[in-house]
Amino acid sequence: MRSAFAYPLFTLTTGPVDVYPAVSRALSMPVWYDYDPAFQACFERVSLKAAQALQSSTPPLILQGEPVLALEAAAASLIGAEDSVLNLVSGVYGAGFSDWARRYTSQVDELRVAFNQAIDPVAVDVWLSRHPQVTIVTVCHHDTPSGTLNPLDDIGRVVKKHGKLLLVDAVSSFAGVAVTAASCQADLFITGPNKCLGCPPGLSLVAVSDAAWLKMEANASAPRASVLSLLDWREAWSAEKPFPYTPSVAEINALEAALDGYLREGPEQVWARHALTARVFRAGVRALGLSLWAADESIASPTATAVRVPEGVNEEQWRLRARAAYGVMFSAGRGETLGKVLRVGHMGPTAQPMFAIIALAALAGALNQLRQPQLDIGAGIAAAMVVMG
Ligand SMILES: *Cc1c(COP(=O)(O)O)cnc(C)c1O
Q1: Cα(37) to centroid of ligand 1, in Å?
Q2: Ligand 1 center from residue 1 Cα (angstroms)
Q3: I need a surface site. Which of 45, 189, 230, 342 has the fewest CB within 10 A?
Q4: 93 lines ligand 1 (CB under 6 A)
Q5: Per-block average pLDDT, block size 10, for the chain (389 residues)?
Q6: Closest Cα to atom 2 of ligand 1
Q7: Which of 142, 150, 172 to mutate to test the pocket of ligand 1 (most atoms within 8 A of CB)?
């Protein structure tokens, strides 16, 4: 089936996501010279706005690549051969962090749950009591390919009780869920503007605690003069200090527009519309007779929903049928969840209940085009609209 839509009408994905109109406008500004004093002032201003949004005591680093850069740079900069890492794994991104960590130390253990479940903070407590040699705990907050959320603030409390460093991947939860670097007590809190902040991919944000700076300074193998160096960027936020290399100037403008929108609307309001959109969507999913990938709805992320692919349905055909027939783009699973889930993002500008209705119509309509028995689309939408109020 050929697509009637050269461009999607609705990009309801889990990242990259559709961007806010103000972000699009910011991307069309003239491109600055990086040492134009006006850009240096802009970079400092954006860094301070990011600190406010992240609740970080010092300006977060803005790295010039999408968040995989920050995750790899964090592993390289923080972890030394003497470190013992406990990686909490509840999904594909969590599992992937072990590979980076193992490049820098041979001592990496995993506390793993099935990829439709969440980490239990009590299990972390028990593990750390039995393994006092652990120096660093790492965790992915929202493991996006599963659409599940770990109880991060509780995990943070346990990790701090044991006096360990905490590294957090909050790429697809920050700005969509009530989480900040402060709330979870992260030492390295890694996120990016290309999920819930509604920006294009191209930058990462890293909030760094004083303890993490001390650790990285003491790490003789931490990279310098490298794109993987966090230390190189430590002072770059200040208009008085040089950049280690050229920042992605156009993306900085986009980030400023996104942060302005986020802070103006108010984080609580933004989180509330992410949560409501997800609830509306899931009510519809249930009423259609489809099921969630998450073992329990209480651990399903407010920023994305992974819908289990029904028996006998080809996920790719389903997803691409929605794109071709209705102009609606969804996300596939990834790694272990590839082919098993179809994912719908509720991120940034698409975290609006009305987009949940569009998603339900498109995914149920596409499925009905592919197979019998027919889903009752009206029942799904009616149930969703009850939650919408
Ligand atoms: C999107 C995302 C990243 C960034 O990685 P890509 O695979 O390049 O998109 C990292 N961690 C999580 C949890 C993400 O959702």
Answers
A1: 33
A2: 30
A3: 45
A4: yes
A5: 82 97 97 97 98 96 97 98 98 98 98 98 98 98 98 98 98 98 98 98 98 98 97 98 97 98 98 98 98 98 98 98 97 98 98 98 98 97 97
A6: 171
A7: 172
Cβ 72 under 6 angstroms from ligand 1: no
Domains of the chain, earliest start first: 10-18+267-388 (3.90.1150.10), 21-264 (3.40.640.10)
The residue with tokens 């701090």 is 160
- Contact 281/344 with Cβ under 8 angstroms? yes
Residues 6+ apart with CB under 8 A from 28: none
CA atoms of 11 and 330, how far apart (whole Å) = 7
Q: Residue 36 in contact with residue 364, Cβ under 8 Å?
A: no
Q: Which residue has the tokens 């430590």?
A: 234
In terms of DSSP bridges, do strands 142-143 and 148-149 run parallel, antiparallel, or are they unpaired?
Answer: antiparallel
pTM for this entry: 0.97
Cβ of 66 less than 6 Å from ligand 1: yes
Residue at 96: amino acid letter: G
Q: What confidence score (pLDDT) does residue 4 get? A: 77
